[in-house]
Structure formats: C-alpha cells, structure tokens
C-alpha cells in the first residue's frame, strides 16, 4: 500500500514538474516571438523612415540658392552626422567656392566654407566643368527604391549627387548586413549606370 501511494505521489510530482517546465518555455517562446515581431516592425519602420526626410532635395537646393543666389551647385551629399541627416551642398561662382549644410529635418542652414578658387579654376572654368544639371531630378525616395531593387535587398543609407562625363548622377549606398553596395543612377532618367559591392 505504501509503495502504491509513494509511486502515485512520484508520478503526480513528475507530472507537475513536467507541466511547470513547459510553461516558462512557452512564455519564453511567445515573448521571444513578440520581441522578434516588434524588432521586425521596428526595422520595417526604420527602413520606411530612412528616406522620409522632412526637407526634400529641392528644399535643400532652394536653401543653398537663397544663401548664394549667383552661384551654381557642384555637388550634394545627404549623410548622417551624430545621428542627424544633413545635406552638404557645394557650389561655385566665377571666383569662389562655397559649402552649405542644411538639416534634413529642421531646414536649418549653416554656411560652412567660402574660399577663393585657384587661378586655373577662376573666370567660370570650374563653374562650367562641375555645374550639376538640377532639372527634373529624381527624389531621394525614387533613387533609393531603384538602388535597393538593383541590389535585391538592404537599406539606402547615403546619397550623393555628382557629375561625370557630362552626366549628373545619384550615387546611393545600400547596406545589407555587412555588405555595402554603391549604385550610380542617372539623376533624371533613373537608369542604373554602375553597381559596385564591397563585402
């Protein structure tokens, strides 16, 4: 009789322990899956907001032109600095070159640099060579979509507008894990000109 009671208690105790050990595992897995889903939604929202700047390229260009109305823009970079995105815009007139930074969220403008051109670049030489074609520019959102589709996945993190051999192009940096790809895109037509990956 004692053996049956002890055996019955042992079975009940084991069943109780087995039941207890499963519950934390279930709650851990459900909290892990809820953490994963919240991380996924966070990464989705961060990739969605990564190109959703309050200040567009056109707005940044206008801010530069208000500061230096008689000059031409030679390059635009949109990059992060201390967690804030800034447009760095460089321009030139017949005698000087300029640099302005425009906050991509607040539109605050700061004049960074103003210096005389070298003798060989004066009198419109550099201006004619480096002036960007700003007509019908594709937006940051549009070139980001083109670049990430070209790469297959990832997130656009840096943008540069430049000129080479008479063509104004966007260079978009796409980060996918540890893989970084730079995609050059015609700034007006959206044609992919070049794609280069650094592992």
From TrEMBL:
Q: Which residues form the signal peptide?
A: 1-20
**Which portions of the sequence form the region Disordered?**
21-52
Q: Which Pfam families match?
A: PepSY (PF03413)
Ranges of compositional bias, category Low complexity: 27-51
The UniProt record lists the keyword Transferase: no
Question: Where is each PepSY domain found?
Answer: 54-111, 138-196
Keyword list (alphabetical) reads: Signal
Do the record's keywords include Signal?
A: yes
Instruction: Return the protein name.
Output: PepSY domain-containing protein
Q: What organism does the record attribute this protein to? A: Candidatus Enterococcus murrayae
């Amino acid at each position: 009789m004692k053996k049956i009671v002890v055996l019955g208690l042992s079975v009940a105790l084991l069943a109780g322990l087995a039941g207890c050990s499963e519950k934390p595992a279930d709650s851990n897995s459900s909290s892990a899956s809820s953490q994963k889903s919240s991380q996924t939604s966070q990464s989705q929202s961060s990739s969605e907001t990564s190109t959703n700047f309050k200040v567009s390229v056109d707005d940044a260009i206008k801010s530069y032109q208000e500061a230096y109305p008689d000059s031409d823009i030679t390059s635009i970079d949109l990059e992060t600095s201390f967690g804030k995105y800034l447009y760095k815009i460089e321009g030139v007139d017949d005698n000087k070159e300029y640099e302005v930074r425009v906050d991509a969220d607040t539109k605050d403008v700061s004049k960074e640099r103003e210096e005389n051109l070298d003798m060989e670049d004066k009198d419109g030489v550099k201006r004619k060579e480096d002036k960007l074609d700003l007509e019908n520019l594709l937006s940051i959102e549009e070139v980001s979509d083109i670049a990430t589709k070209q790469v297959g996945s990832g997130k656009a993190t840096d943008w540069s507008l430049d000129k080479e051999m008479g063509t104004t192009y966007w260079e978009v940096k796409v980060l996918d894990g540890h893989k970084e790809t730079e995609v050059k895109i015609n700034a007006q037509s959206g044609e992919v000109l070049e794609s280069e990956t650094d592992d």
